Amino acid sequence: MSKVLLFGGTTEGRIIAEILSDNKIECDVCVATEYGEMVMEEMPFVRVMTGRLSYAEMAALVQNGGYDAVIDATHPFAVEVSANIRKSVASAVFCGASDGCDGEPVEKVAAVAEKSGVLSLPLIRYERNMDVSENYDSCEFFDDVPSCILALARTEGKILLTTGSKELGDFCECESIKSRLVARVLPGMESLRLCYDAGLTGKQIIAMQGPFSEQMNRTIIEEYGISVLVMKESGKTGGADEKIRAAKAAGIGCYVIRRPRILDDADVSTVGQDSSELSGVALDSSKESAFAFVEADNSSASHESAFQNYCVVSSIGELCRTLEKCLSGSVTWRISLHVSLAGIGPGGTDFMTAAVRTRLAEADCVFGAPRMLSSVHVKGFEADGTKTRSDNANCASEKYIGEKCATYPYYLASDILPVLEDLRQKAAETSESANYARVLRAVVLFSGDPGFFSGAEKLKEALSALPDATVEILPGISSIQYLASKLGRNWQNADIISMHGVPEEKWLPAVDSAVSAGREVFFLTSGAADIRRLGSFLVSLRRSGGVSEYTVHVGFQLSYPDEVVKTLTPEECMEIDGQGLWCGMLIPKKGN
Hints:
This protein is α/β, with parallel strands linked by helices and 592 residues long. It is built from 23 helices and 22 strands. The strands form four sheets. The protein has a six-stranded parallel sheet, sandwiched between helices. Helix 11 (240-250) links the parallel strand 10 and strand 11. Helix 3 packs across helix 4 and helix 5 crosses helix 13. The N and C termini lie far apart (84 Å). The relative contact order is 0.09. Mean pLDDT is 79; it is low at 263-307 and 379-403.
């Protein structure tokens, strides 16, 4: 069985551990804090080791662990830790588990080992993509913490510090800044201890686990009266987009500390290039050659060129393909699918439920008839449902749809299922950790309520047959509910008849049976032609005698700006015209 050593403590680390567990690959995960261990769920084949490791401890772990590969998934700002991992892996492989490097400082051995280029154990660095969707134009950038502190000293008002607890002490050294700080940190004992050690009081500490939505950030900004938000340039996974949007919406300053550059050999080495510094160390012939290589080359080569088996990946798909090569075996992964069949109500956005709005905000893709896509304000669709752009990507709505959303004007299972499978495969191949929650979230829109004369039942059956797929149905306000409320009537005793897409020879007998018995009827139509035919039928029934007189209430484009609710006689129904959505109620006149 293959075995991997993973340095984690980040979202990426947790996801990678899940993939290794799913593939039955033994994995030791190193996390620095107890909180890092707490958020790492218990998984088969995964062992979590807690505590910060020195160079020597890392090297010993690699030497004695029997690993087939090492993965560095530490935080993008933890450049020194990444450098230590490189050095420790290099020195461990260079010296071996039991040969003559014993007794020499591991830093010295690591420096020579890095320059030697003899690394044979694969070392994979998962490099978080730092791109964001939001525009940084409203932000002020700083190369390091000290320069940000100088700028903060010139500001007024409270400061929301979202950079974590590591540099908290630096910010608190300036009394004028410390008194104005509100620090948001992880809810771990180490983070809280650092807050108190820095001199912060309880009311200045927000200990919460992210990710944080834009609304949560805005709520904190408003509740604490924040004037400046300070963040690290940590990409989507670090919640950069949500912080920038919240700061923009609140009209406050947004200070961004740039990501530090990756340390090269000149930064991390503490020895010269002379092999005599390791005098007395017994080396085999390959290592003697390595020292000669270092002696001849005094340049500061970057770590990318120094290691034979070192590579950087920036997506989950790329990581898995790299692991397949390192481990000489298949590393499979599948993104699961969650589909919400969502009733959007009669059409107006005011009548969508909060649950539907939430699913739309979380969606990776949304399906529906063009009119419905336009109803929920999907970009690229005009009010009449006309698609105005040729691409499906990045057509998110500023108000309702999530930023990752792609929209498709489909509502049939035969069209939707192939798209979902294609999207799922592409997501697995290219996903970064920022949007790799291992779930592709889709929403299919239905007018009214999915359980009221819709295609939701058949679509649910087809979707449920897909592997790793779950389906939920979100109710909406149906047209019968809406129209009855506009008329001030209850509807629990009404017969419900659908004319929509139904041949006349099927719905007419149902209407005949209901009105002949004097019952109330709610009806759905395919358009104005059905209203005219119903009026004609009621007139003919009345002429034949023995049938109650009926009042006809009709609703057109319910909940839309051009909504019309009319009360008609059967004769007036025969004159109805207009393209759009019609429904109605037949109410027997009192005294009949």
